[in-house]
């Protein structure tokens, strides 16, 4: 396995240094409404009619199936609503206590490189986790950001953040989800991202009493070194 967590990340700053809008949604956003909003905003960005946006939301409990999802990885379809979505990846969970960041960026103004974009998202999440002294790591062949958990007689790697994106006309949407304090038992209805040999964790599960506001501030601070300035 390759650990890229210490490698220099691929930055995707705009040459014109145009700031990105940063928006936090109040309450729980229904998933279908979020997708409709992203579709509309991404089209406007591609047309030059709107600026880039990072939109932070929380969803009610639900499962989403990415384009690589396997039907066998949906263990219990009766627990929560299941949405088929066009993002990359397999099954994942969204719900209260999880910060979902929808990233609508124009890669034609940054770099038309999907791999570099995913690596930049990884670097962003890892930078945010570092502010809580959590070492986020990347593993070859496994999507997302992972935390190595070791103690005498115990060793395991748990996922703390998922990444799933879609590009249309070189504008991104969907994005990342960071587990702050979700109910981890809600993952029982799926095989998260097709991984059967690893678990899931959260900042609070790691013993860190981090609030959603604190997680948002960490994400905001870590965003600028990778993607450039945020609009005031």
- Number of H- or I-type helical stretches: 3
Report the structural category: alpha/beta
Whole-number average pLDDT? 91
Strand content: 25-35%
Major sheet, described briefly? 8 strands, mixed
Radius of gyration: 17 Å
Given the C-alpha coordinates, what overall shape results? Answer: globular
- What gap, in angstroms, lies between the N and C termini? 40 Å
- Low-confidence runs of at least 5 consecutive residues: 1-9
- Write the H/E string, N to C: EHEEEEEHEEEEEH
User: How helix-rich are the residues, as a percent range?
Assistant: 10-25%
Number of strands: 11
At a glance:
This protein is of the alpha/beta class and about 230 residues long. The protein has helices spanning about 30-45, 115-130, 210-225; strands at about 20-30, 55-60, 60-65, 80-85, 90-95, 100-105, 135-140, 140-150, 155-170, 170-180, 200.
What report would you give on this structure?
By secondary structure, this protein is of the alpha/beta class. The protein contains three helices and eleven strands. The chain has helices at residues 31-46, 114-130, 212-227, and strands at 21-28, 53-58, 62-65, 82-84, 91-94, 98-104, 137-139, 142-151, 154-168, 171-179, 199-200. The strands form two sheets. Strands 1, 2, 6, 7, 8, 9, 10 and 11 form an eight-stranded mixed sheet that branches. It has a three-stranded mixed sheet with strand order 4-3-5, with no helix packed on it. The N and C termini lie far apart (40 Å). Mean pLDDT is 91; it is low at 1-9.
């Amino acid at each position: 396995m390759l650990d890229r967590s210490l490698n220099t990340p691929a930055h995707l700053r705009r040459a014109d240094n145009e700031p990105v809008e940063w928006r936090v949604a109040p309450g729980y956003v229904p998933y279908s409404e979020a997708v409709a909003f992203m579709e509309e905003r991404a089209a406007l960005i591609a047309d030059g009619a709107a600026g880039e946006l990072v939109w932070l939301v929380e969803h009610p409990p639900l499962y989403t199936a990415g384009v690589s999802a396997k039907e066998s990885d949906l263990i219990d379809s009766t627990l929560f609503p299941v949405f088929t979505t066009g993002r990359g990846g397999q099954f994942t969970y969204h719900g209260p206590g999880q910060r979902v960041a929808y990233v609508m960026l124009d890669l034609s103004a940054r770099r038309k490189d999907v791999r570099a974009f995913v690596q930049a998202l990884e670097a962003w999440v890892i930078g945010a986790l570092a502010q809580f002294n959590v070492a986020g790591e990347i593993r070859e062949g496994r999507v997302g950001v992972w935390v190595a958990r070791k103690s005498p007689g115990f060793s395991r790697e748990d996922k703390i953040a998922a990444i799933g994106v879609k590009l249309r006309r070189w504008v991104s949407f969907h994005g990342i989800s960071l587990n702050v304090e979700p109910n981890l038992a809600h993952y029982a209805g799926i095989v998260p991202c097709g991984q059967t040999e690893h678990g899931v964790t959260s900042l609070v599960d790691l013993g860190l009493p981090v609030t959603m506001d604190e997680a948002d501030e960490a994400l905001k601070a870590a965003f600028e070194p990778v993607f450039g300035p945020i609009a005031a």
